């Protein structure tokens, strides 16, 4: 059979391991702590669980295909109109819709390295040429480097902000230089999967650029701050004609009933969101302090994870923690063999992690 030639080099996305996988593979009987996939350690909102239980009785019916209630609620939250929104089966799906809508084989997309791996993955699937620009020496998006790599074939620039896996962000000056020098026809996808965790008030958010008329698609997800990773719900905000085009390309029922209704409840549950942000911000400070005081390089992060350079003891710590049921994310696939990414956990989980690291260091 003749497969598409550009699919031959495709490698699968390396997802973080689940608790069951780890227990099976390593024969661990006790608890497993997930510091590896940037999930919410609080568990889901109780209000969401309640509505899911109620909805279970109606899964014989299709959901309402327009998803208008959730679009209206989001429009109210952001001061936009429902036509500015595209809802996706995770923000991942919205990323794919960008390729469906804009990319012809041979077009170029620009991504930082490292950044969220799915931009490159979809580029491979849709036959786009990927230009990768290394992060700068502070592990931030390299704005001059990105601008230097633009060409007349560039269609989209993907910027995860905060960046995954470093947690770095750009300041107003960086963004200013970027937009001043970027041709207007190039779409900038500002992926704010971790946007809720940005603490620094000086860091601009994508919504500001959208409202000021720049050619941007701002992505948000319910997987992180709202604790709904398993339901798969994310969205994009864009100027109406782009949002409507993306909406016309999705499957008719791309959100399942649970995700659609849970999204509405999660948006209302401000107490859950507040608690989840507090845990991340305090835990981020705690882990940064503790691991820095052990002599490791902790990169400044505005996300729900930190990247830590453990130097020569990285593999020893990773394996040792794994055997004890503490699961971290190795950053070798991202080009950092001596670094691990640690999702911020509950306070007692963070303390347990530090205690185990100290023990393994002897
Ligand atoms: C930067 C970034 N963007 C997008 C996603 C996808 O999130 P989801 O598809 O769960 O909304 C992730 C997931 O980890 C991510 O790290």
TrEMBL record:
Chain positions found as N6-(pyridoxal phosphate)lysine: 224
Reaction(s) catalysed (UniProt annotation): L-histidinol phosphate + 2-oxoglutarate = 3-(imidazol-4-yl)-2-oxopropyl phosphate + L-glutamate
Top-level lineage group: Bacteria
Aminotransferase class I/classII large domain: residues covered: 33-354
InterPro entries attached to this UniProt entry: Aminotrans_II_pyridoxalP_BS, Aminotransferase_I/II_large, HisP_aminotrans, HistidinolP_aminotransfase, PyrdxlP-dep_Trfase, PyrdxlP-dep_Trfase_major, PyrdxlP-dep_Trfase_small
Required cofactor(s): pyridoxal 5'-phosphate
CDD domains xrefs: AAT_like
Gene Ontology BP terms: L-histidine biosynthetic process
Keywords of this entry: Amino-acid biosynthesis, Aminotransferase, Histidine biosynthesis, Pyridoxal phosphate, Transferase
GO molecular function, one term: histidinol-phosphate transaminase activity
Pathway field: Amino-acid biosynthesis; L-histidine biosynthesis; L-histidine from 5-phospho-alpha-D-ribose 1-diphosphate: step 7/9
A Pfam match: Aminotran_1_2
Plastid recorded as keyword: no
Catalytic activity, EC: 2.6.1.9
UniProt enzyme class: transferase
Keyword Amino-acid biosynthesis: yes
Subunit comment: Homodimer.
Family per record: Belongs to the class-II pyridoxal-phosphate-dependent aminotransferase family. Histidinol-phosphate aminotransferase subfamily.
PANTHER family: HISTIDINOL-PHOSPHATE AMINOTRANSFERASE, HISTIDINOL-PHOSPHATE AMINOTRANSFERASE 2
Name listed for the protein in its UniProt record: Histidinol-phosphate aminotransferase
Highest classification ranks of the organism: Bacteria, Pseudomonadati, Thermodesulfobacteriota, Thermodesulfobacteria, Thermodesulfobacteriales
